């Protein structure tokens, strides 16, 4: 008797935690130390959770042993609503907020509630691959619009427009972007939103990195630029608040909800079916959004994240045959391997060879639905000295690497 996975899984991929991990685990079991640069988990790299968040969760633990409302506790939803009211979304109220077990769960619910088989969702390439995976699992078709590396990885509006069909239901905007670090200017966002407006698309704005910005970049909430569109904005505590393990995120509904009443009923049903988000972590939300703690000291000049971003970007560009667009936000760099210099045909094999030889784990570019095997993603989370050493080792590895 063989139990097989559902045929619905056939095209579902999530390479950030893909099969290469098993090799990394085996190396560690054999006594090697592996530098894991695959998941954006600040806790692994010496980032402490803000004390006031921890204290609030501990203080409320004895109250958090029961199920909560499916959407999440009122105090946390109020904190999220107030946060967005002060940032260009004055109409948002507590009933427009859903808390989730991380943004990941909410992405899954938002997509599942929308799609019929064959419905299309516009997703950037490269993308944070969960969007593509859940679209496929929901029976939909992920249609990738290209981001242009020669234009700082900004989406190409013509390409986006050319990919809209009568089956397109939603537009996913990931800003600041994982894996490229691009931060979208206002005019570009307005252009994207205008396409959504003309083609009556739901907007999914994944803005989990909206406070991790370098070089004075300004983040614009897509929802605030298009109050006339039904928009779901996603963010949470994993990155800017460094508590990824709490699994705490939120979704904000905005725009003319009367146009989406049926969809929202479905979303509500899915929220009820998961009963509620993890209750202790919900108590972290009010402390995070209402508290004194801030990520500014990490991203401003002299800040740890900013320095690490600089080191990663500089060292990568020093490697012959490697070029990297400067990340303007988020926690990653997405360098290009010049195919004329590095003839890589299979980037998963490249990543595995790098792991086996140098004990450094990165993620192949095709894992982010990038169409060619000529990129990889590296985290900018390790201390500058560790990043510097790791990227020099990647350079030495590439110098002798032939596939
Ligand atoms: N969205 C983006 C763009 C991400 O990079 C991530 C995690 O890396 C998530 C969503 C999911 O975050 P979480 O489920 O931890 O809230």
From TrEMBL:
Q: Which domain of life is it from?
A: Bacteria
What EC number(s) has UniProt assigned to this enzyme? 2.6.1.2
Enzyme superclass (EC):
transferase
Q: Pfam family of this protein, just one?
A: Aminotran_1_2
Q: Does the keyword RNA-binding apply?
A: no
Q: Which residues form the Aminotransferase class I/classII large domain?
A: 34-394
Q: Which InterPro entries match?
A: Ala_Aminotransferase, Aminotransferase_I/II_large, PyrdxlP-dep_Trfase, PyrdxlP-dep_Trfase_major, PyrdxlP-dep_Trfase_small
Question: Any idea which GO molecular function terms this record carries?
Answer: L-alanine:2-oxoglutarate aminotransferase activity; pyridoxal phosphate binding
Q: Which UniProt keywords apply?
A: Aminotransferase, Pyridoxal phosphate, Transferase
- Co-factor requirement: pyridoxal 5'-phosphate
**Entry similarity comment:** Belongs to the class-I pyridoxal-phosphate-dependent aminotransferase family.
This chain's protein is named: alanine transaminase
Lineage summary: Bacteria, Bacillati, Actinomycetota, Actinomycetes, Kitasatosporales
């Amino acid at each position: 008797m063989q139990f097989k996975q559902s045929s619905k899984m056939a095209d579902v991929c999530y390479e950030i935690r893909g099969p290469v991990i098993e090799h990394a685990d085996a190396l560690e079991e054999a006594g090697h130390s592996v530098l894991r640069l695959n998941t954006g988990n600040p806790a692994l790299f010496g980032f402490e959770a803000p004390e006031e968040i921890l204290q609030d969760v501990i203080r409320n633990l004895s109250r958090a042993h029961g199920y909560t409302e499916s959407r999440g506790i009122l105090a946390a939803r109020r904190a999220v609503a107030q946060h967005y009211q002060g940032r260009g979304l004055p109409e948002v109220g507590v009933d427009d907020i859903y808390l989730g077990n991380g943004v990941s769960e909410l992405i899954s619910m938002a997509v599942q509630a929308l799609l019929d088989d064959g419905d299309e969702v516009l997703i950037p390439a490269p993308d944070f691959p969960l969007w593509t995976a859940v679209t496929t699992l929901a029976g939909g078709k992920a249609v990738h619009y290209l981001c242009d590396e020669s234009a700082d990885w900004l989406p190409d509006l013509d390409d986006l427009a050319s990919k809209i069909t009568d089956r397109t239901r939603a537009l996913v905007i990931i800003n600041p972007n994982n894996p490229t670090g691009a931060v979208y200017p206002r005019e570009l966002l307005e252009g994207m939103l205008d396409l959504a407006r003309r083609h009556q698309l739901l907007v999914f704005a994944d803005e989990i990195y909206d406070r991790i910005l370098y070089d004075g970049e300004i983040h614009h909430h897509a929802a605030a630029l298009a109050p006339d569109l039904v928009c779901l904005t996603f963010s949470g505590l994993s990155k800017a608040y460094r508590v990824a393990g709490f699994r705490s995120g939120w979704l904000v509904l905005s725009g003319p909800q009367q146009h989406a009443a049926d969809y929202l009923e479905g979303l509500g049903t899915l929220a009820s079916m998961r009963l509620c988000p993890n209750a202790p972590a919900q108590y972290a939300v009010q402390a995070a959004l209402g508290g004194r703690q801030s990520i500014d000291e990490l991203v401003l000049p002299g800040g740890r994240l900013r320095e690490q971003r600089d080191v990663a970007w500089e060292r990568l560009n020093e490697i012959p045959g490697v070029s990297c667009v400067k990340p303007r936000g988020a926690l990653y760099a997405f360098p290009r391997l010049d195919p004329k210099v590095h003839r890589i045909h299979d980037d998963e094999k490249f990543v595995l060879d790098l792991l086996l030889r140098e004990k450094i784990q990165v993620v192949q570019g095709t894992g982010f639905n990038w169409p060619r095997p000529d990129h990889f993603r590296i985290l900018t989370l390790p201390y500058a000295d560790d990043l510097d050493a790791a990227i020099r080792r990647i350079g030495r590895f590439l110098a002798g690497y032939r596939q």
